[in-house]
Write a structure and sequence with these properties.
Layout: H1 2-22, H2 48-74
Helix pairs in contact: 1-2
Length: 75
């Protein structure tokens, strides 16, 4: 069980790093290469893609924390 959770932790970490790098910053970062960056809309403060990217990032961050706690508890 510990090995499965450890492998899952690495996969979640890689996905989380990728999602964070997709966020647009001052210079549009890597998100500009995938068409996610660009101007925000005047209504809602961002496009639907950006909001979904935010939701996915938060989801994987929470999953990372929960998996870390579970790994520590079974160790």
């Amino acid at each position: 069980m510990y090995t499965i959770l450890g492998v899952l932790q690495v996969i979640i970490a890689v996905v989380l790093v990728f999602l964070v790098l997709l966020h647009s910053g001052k210079d549009a970062g890597l998100s500009g290469a995938f068409g996610i960056g660009g101007g925000g809309s005047s209504i809602g403060g961002g496009s639907m893609v950006e909001r979904n990217l935010d939701r996915a990032t938060v989801f994987f961050a929470v999953l990372f924390v929960v998996n870390t706690i579970v790994i520590l508890k079974i160790q």
